[in-house]
């Protein structure tokens, strides 16, 4: 078995903390296609923390896409692995827990979720961590590198394939923000220090704030309606934003990676 690659992180977690990313995964076309077309729908939840609850929730939700999905929770702390193993002894079909890090414990999953993991690493460690996971996933596999607050009300994540980042998604409970740029504090590690003038992510968040202010009238129908109107205004202004095709309780905004990739230097 490969030596676990990485360092022990704080491990804070909680029930339903990752519900927004789970809902997005269930409805994201690229994720659905991968899960539905592979012979072995193996998913890794990397760095699930001190409690295994979000891994169990991920397995439950992904079964909306495919009933035979298998989810492996990987942790670099043996005690957390034991806690996870104890949780499934009572019967959690298709879920297991094992020791592992960015090398994915030699598994070949089609989907990896690494949430609130790289946030605790130095930014210089991100490329190597991404490369290790990209090397480990199955051909055509996908990776989610994300960050959220303690209650999961403000979230951001990057979707990657085996070669490159594909997109950035901002997600929130629209009732839990004052402006879209409130999400800046939860940007993934590779972007959080790039929210400065001249960087594409700063341009996007600033434009979202301006659009949010301009569609304030939609607030009479609730913050979800205001969020949708903001996304539509950004699209009309030429930003390559997309929102889910179906109405969700979450505020969701996704852009291609090239629209927010850090400026070199």
Automatic annotation (TrEMBL):
InterPro entries: SAM-dependent_MTases_sf (IPR029063). This is Methylase. It comes from Mycolicibacterium poriferae.
């Amino acid at each position: 078995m490969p030596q676990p690659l990485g360092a022990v992180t704080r491990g804070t977690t909680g029930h339903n903390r990752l519900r927004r990313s789970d809902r997005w995964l269930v409805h994201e076309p690229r994720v659905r296609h991968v899960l539905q077309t592979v012979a072995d729908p193996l998913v890794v939840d990397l760095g699930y923390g001190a409690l295994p609850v979000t891994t169990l929730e991920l397995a439950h939700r992904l079964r909306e896409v495919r009933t035979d999905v298998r989810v492996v929770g990987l942790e670099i702390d043996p005690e957390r692995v034991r806690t996870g193993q104890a949780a499934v002894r009572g019967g959690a079909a298709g879920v297991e827990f094992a020791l592992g890090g960015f090398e994915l414990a030699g598994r070949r999953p089609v989907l990896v979720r690494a949430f609130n993991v790289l946030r605790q690493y130095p930014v210089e460690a991100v490329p190597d961590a991404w490369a290790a996971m990209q090397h480990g996933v199955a051909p055509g596999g996908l990776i989610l590198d994300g960050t959220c607050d303690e209650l999961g009300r403000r979230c951001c994540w990057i979707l990657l394939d085996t070669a490159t980042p594909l997109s950035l998604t901002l997600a929130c409970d629209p009732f839990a923000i004052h402006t879209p740029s409130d999400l800046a504090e939860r940007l993934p590690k590779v972007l959080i220090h790039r929210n400065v003038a001249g960087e594409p992510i700063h341009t996007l968040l600033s434009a979202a704030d301006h659009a949010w202010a301009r569609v304030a009238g939609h607030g009479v129908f609730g913050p979800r309606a205001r969020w949708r109107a903001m996304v539509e205004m950004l699209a009309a202004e030429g930003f390559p934003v997309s929102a889910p095709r179906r109405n969700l309780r979450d505020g969701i905004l996704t852009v291609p990676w090239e629209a927010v990739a850090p400026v070199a230097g």
